[in-house]
Fold these 2 entries.
Entry 1:
Amino acid sequence: MASTDSSNRGNIEVLKAVNDDHGGVIVELKAPMDPGAFSMCLKASLLEWRNQGIKGVWIKLPIELAGLVQHIVEEGFWYHHAEPSYLMLVHWIPATEHTIPVNATHRVGVGAFVVNDRKEILVVQEKSGTSRGLGFWKIPTGVINQGEDIFAGVVREVKEETGIDTEFVEVLAFRQSHSSFFEKSDLFFLCMLHPLSFDIQKQESEIEVAQWMPIEKYAAEPLVQRHEFSKHVLAVGLAKLENTYAGFSPVCVQSSFVDQQSYIYLNGRDLEHPQATSL
Amino acid sequence: MASTDSSNRGNIEVLKAVNDDHGGVIVELKAPMDPGAFSMCLKASLLEWRNQGIKGVWIKLPIELAGLVQHIVEEGFWYHHAEPSYLMLVHWIPATEHTIPVNATHRVGVGAFVVNDRKEILVVQEKSGTSRGLGFWKIPTGVINQGEDIFAGVVREVKEETGIDTEFVEVLAFRQSHSSFFEKSDLFFLCMLHPLSFDIQKQESEIEVAQWMPIEKYAAEPLVQRHEFSKHVLAVGLAKLENTYAGFSPVCVQSSFVDQQSYIYLNGRDLEHPQATSL
């Protein structure tokens, strides 16, 4: 068998693998293999890894090799996660209960509370979704892309849906909801943004109509009045406008163990200007 | 073809499907089908759906039918997501750019800041992970299960890792990091919990050692001093203990459009007791 994905150890073909941080191995298949030959190779690899005391075995299979999926499943693997171009399968060798980490469980959405100097709030009606056709005015919302920071994603979504340039101010609140998309959950971050431009250019594909609406008029909308979440959005947004509310703002942190930056969102006002509460 | 997954319309077999909220259809395959017959059936279905103006086509394929994956991929489907027992594939019929929502992108982790009446903080050393074997004391952390609320998951994790019963107080801060697990991102919620019991019983599988440590001793640990994120954790945790810091606490909200409850986390102190900031 002449494959770049396997190495010959005596008469046993073992798939090329790299170790992970948890006593397991990761195999990234790239070259096409004959399914029969692949199955033999996988069986031999599992024997070898068992002897080595390997625990979890990951196989990353590009979509071009979809014909091998059933052969991997036949060896006791299950699906861990999938992205458009690949499927990740996993298997646990020991007899003990597995400690394979769960798949990503949440989509991350953002909503933008944007109010201009004339006390008008930026609102839209969407072309699709559960509220379409109801005349329901809502703040611009969207979904964070893979690898995108919350503070960047919300500015991008407002620009895409309404054409308005903004700068990020603060996360005012967040909501966790379940079973929002198949079995997946949703984390929605409500953000205050400061508008930097004022001429609306709505996104044709997703937005029915967009406008700056006087905030009192928005607060009095019957559908907003009846929508519990919108009322919370208004309450924290108005409190923030009056400067009596502190949300969370991002601080860049460097990890010590892996070479990576991330952002921690915290109540910076209370850390900088500590004040005893009236509670 | 005698399958519960298809219906015969004249001489065209069309797969049984239900409409989604976005002009698409969802097919849930359950019964095994001969791969060749299935391919013909899928081709006919796609023609029919194209005529009907259907946009997105979802196929949920149980792992037992893994042999059909390649036949679905051959018709232009790609992977959307996967869970242990099934693979979800998707295809976009129109010539326009697709508006298929992204897969779940984030795992949700929690960390618990638990301090007892003797000003001791609950800390652990883990058996695996990037900090194993370094003598690094950290607060108990874990990953939220599918469908689990943050305030419930963090209490469960503390109980599992240390045996300590707690009650949830507040989310003090959160961190978003990328590429933390394959290409997936991570949202980590730092929570303040109030301890309800004191006798530690550590989890054998994951925890090397667990203890109540005087908080000044913890703050002086060299590895904590050098770990930027731990310093932020300490700063907000200590500010909260001194009652000068407001995080986010959960409020139950009912959705108006779908029959579902969720929790919004917000700065309840500032809403109840508004006070002008010193900024």
Entry 2:
Amino acid sequence: MSHQLEKKSSYNVAIAGVTGAVGEIFLEILAERKFPINQLKLLASPRSAGKKISYDGKEYTVEALSKDSFNDVDIALFSAGGSTSKEFAPIAAKAGAVVIDNSSAFRMDDDVPLVVPEVNPAAAFRHKGIIANPNCTTIIMVVALKPLHEISPIKKVWVSSYQSASGAGAKGMYELQTQTRQLVNDEPLTIEAFSHQLLHNVIPHIDTPQDNGYTREEMKMFYETCKIMGDPSIKVSSTCVRVPVISAHSEAITIESENPITVEQAREALDKAPGIRVVDDLPNNIYPMPLDVAGKDDCEVGRIRKDLASENGLTFWVVGDQLRKGAALNAVQIAELLISK
Amino acid sequence: MSHQLEKKSSYNVAIAGVTGAVGEIFLEILAERKFPINQLKLLASPRSAGKKISYDGKEYTVEALSKDSFNDVDIALFSAGGSTSKEFAPIAAKAGAVVIDNSSAFRMDDDVPLVVPEVNPAAAFRHKGIIANPNCTTIIMVVALKPLHEISPIKKVWVSSYQSASGAGAKGMYELQTQTRQLVNDEPLTIEAFSHQLLHNVIPHIDTPQDNGYTREEMKMFYETCKIMGDPSIKVSSTCVRVPVISAHSEAITIESENPITVEQAREALDKAPGIRVVDDLPNNIYPMPLDVAGKDDCEVGRIRKDLASENGLTFWVVGDQLRKGAALNAVQIAELLISK
């Protein structure tokens, strides 16, 4: 198939949206993991073209994304928003690149795999030029669900999220930092990135409202979980809330499984699972927190306990860096997977 | 019974712990609601004795709490911590006062009513000198549960909280404000009131760990809900999380009831319920948020929608000022109830 990556010693990689919050982390992670890059092409909107960015000791000039950007590109990492992906990902795929797209544009398309390498690695190879990177909050949840699902199938999930400002991109992170400074300096607070003041507040609204009273973010957690886990029978009900945290998303999760999963079984399975670290010692004030997890690759799981309301229920707390595992790292791991065969 | 309040035109009221976060609000609320006070006695630890506090245009001197503090007191409002309540509430009751105690010291005692006036007003009259004011997070939840429970009995509750700094008292609120200033001024952050930095973080740990992996705060939400609702069959599973908000607690709640409750039924019942305001217009960015609810008496409910995981499930979002309805206001409402008969 034309779209399977040819085995090479190094690859031509393009990053579309390199000046955004996730774009920057793409570069960090590619360098950290010594991804075998032959040529690197940094792409962004015309507004950012000409900007200099250094990678691995060399300076690169950001180019304006155009329909000619993808000639000779093997792997195109997209994180430039849904409309940009919709326009340029098919062009990149047609030009022969494998696109790994961080937007929600193609996630639910039948012929686009939605991949979390720890959960459904095989799906990555069934692409037709575009592979979708799931929603950040969903990725962080499913890495923890997967090892439990293997003990006993998960039937129901209730999740409340505590999502950080940088989930709304660099502008969200910047707005929280700006509001913090403004409050202390007694200045009026800038409110642009979020619909309300985020500092010293929480906002139970992420992404656009849907007809059923849920937000799009909340519905993504339902549909994407089913697709990634390959089980359309899982029901996910969520409340997605923005909290005044710079980076890393937290989630309070309850699962109900077909058969009971004990705390010991869960801890053992999570301990062995890739991409997860169990951080669970409440009496010593040890549990995952966004301040600790920001900048880390692994998602951390703690507060693991039997659910008190559901018969076969288990309750726990997961925190993951949504710019890394929730976005850039997951995409790079998909690329690593593709070049590993 | 000696402990039922005699009908008078005004009452001698003592406040124990008047210099704390809740103590201050006690005074605000008594004044706002023109509680009929004959003599007012302001009590605190010896450390705070001598402090001047004005109430309704008059200046009062804080006295050190002692075993002689309660002679001639009709109503004693306590918010001075569990150990002070344990020592002095029985003394006050013996001296003839009716104690309304905001600590957790007596809440689960069989002969101490645990009262939320909107939920179980009759229980208030079954006291033997001490009435307990429930945990703040529990009060805010049960005012919303009660009207739904009347449509169809609630069997299960899953709740994740977003609790503000002032839930840990004035020192918690002060620490978040201090950390905000310190971060902006590039100073080291003071971490004393909470086990970790709260600013730009969330901490999934409130109150002491229990053997079952839950915290005491989380277990209070279970046991106190059953006692207040008068239904020991309700099962409550919660995750209590501290968030960097100054005041007002938020809660993402899912209930499973015996029979389905529609969104329309729920909204209608909550709209009519005392102590609640429905604030629910997601497409117009309208929902309860702590910044808006702080300082208000009513709890606000929004994001009301059918739960997607549970058959007879309903999911919603409640925010309440935990110093007011979650503490001082609820206690004063209990006092009003007692003098109303």
